[in-house]
Design brief:
The complex is a heterodimer. Chain A is mainly α. Chain A is built from nine helices and no strands. The two termini of chain A are 17 Å apart. Chain B is an alpha+beta fold. In chain B, strands 2, 3, 6, 7 and 8 form a five-stranded antiparallel β-sheet that branches. At the A-B interface, helix 2, helix 3 and helix 8 of A face helix 3 of B.
Chain lengths: 207, 261
Amino acid sequence: MASTATLEKTASHPGWLRLTHWLNAVAVLIMVTSGWRIYNASPLFGFSFPSQLTLGGWLGGALQWHFAGMWLLFVNGVLYLMLNIATGRLFTRFFPLSPRGVLQDLSTALRGKLAHDDLSHYNQVQRLAYLFAIVDIVLLIISGLVLWKSVQFGLLRELLGGYETARRVHFVAMALLVGFVAVHLVMVALVPRTLRLMITGKGGKSS
Amino acid sequence: MTVDKSPISSDANEIITESRRLLAPRIHDTTRRNFLLKGLTLGGISMLSGCSLSDSQSVETALASISRFNDRVQGWLFDPKALAPVYDEAMITRPFPFNAFYGEDDAPSVEAATYRLEISGLVADKRSWRLEELRAMAQTDQITRHICVEGWSAIGRWGGVRFSDFLQRIGADTSARFVGFKCADDYYTSIDMATALHPQTLLALTYDGQTLPRQYGFPMKLRMPTKLGYKNPKHIQAIYITNTYPGGYWEDQGYNWFGGS
């Protein structure tokens, strides 16, 4: 009985996880859409983002959103990482992780045979994808700090290879995060129970 | 200021009407209700149609106060001893880009012979300055990166009087909070005293070894590699020291005031 109770408990997403997940979703939405508007002011590459998809109305407005959203992204991200480490969840849910495990789970998934009875148990492809999202957001914050304060954060600037390189790092990290979100949303659409789990914290286990 | 206006879908309208119906009876305080309904309408429409959320007065106020908070954070982060990187002559961006709120041909022509730099505010010596007097002061040269608020950057070489030397010379009250600038192109801006005293802050009289050309701000610009481009005023006519927040051309429209890098 005790082990069943423990399993029940761990099978749900705790409140702090759901809260930080949705705050992060809002922060990422704000940062990406306002960031696109800022990008459009001086496109690095040969294209602009459609302005209907951007936030802020003009460069000044987009900058205000971006530099307000950064606090939400940063504070919420720190809170998430601290709770994730303190509760031991980071290590129990995301590890072990190995290239072989990822390939196995990926091939099982592609053959449509991956089990989803316990949604809070992450398969290795999920582990890799979520860890990637965490690392990518950390990279976005670091490169963003270099763009925001390239003189004050001189060490970070040199680590990233200078201001102009940091711009490109920031852009690529954004593109990868948007790619992650796209795949993430497709996966949620394929297994809609995951959405309920992330909202209510329940329904992670199919009976 | 441009604001995107997209047509609102009928779905969005329905959602708002329905939400209003559900929300209204629960909130008794009318002020609060109006605030929420306004927020709901503008926020909802904006989210659904991707237009500017800044339409909403309350959102705009919140963003402006976060921007002021960011001013304080930047003031706190600013290290008076941290120097911006300097570059080799080979790395200078050629041609150096022209940038202003008007076209290159519209840059003002200031007459050198009759030019006087006006000084006012919290200073001991308010007499105005002729260009020769500024050129007679100790000159220094530096090759630094100019970073624009739009994201692009370019490396250039500016020379002139170290601004802290100049402030000392006019007996400026360096415990004052702001240094303000008024320019011949009707531009105006202001900076914090800590940045004004930074060793790389120059009252620039030359560009790339030549007298500062008209398009780059003749007769002088304030060059600060520790701040974004719009904080570096060109064609300066008047400098004043004050404790009253002076704002700026772009800052008054929503750009962050500190604008540090």
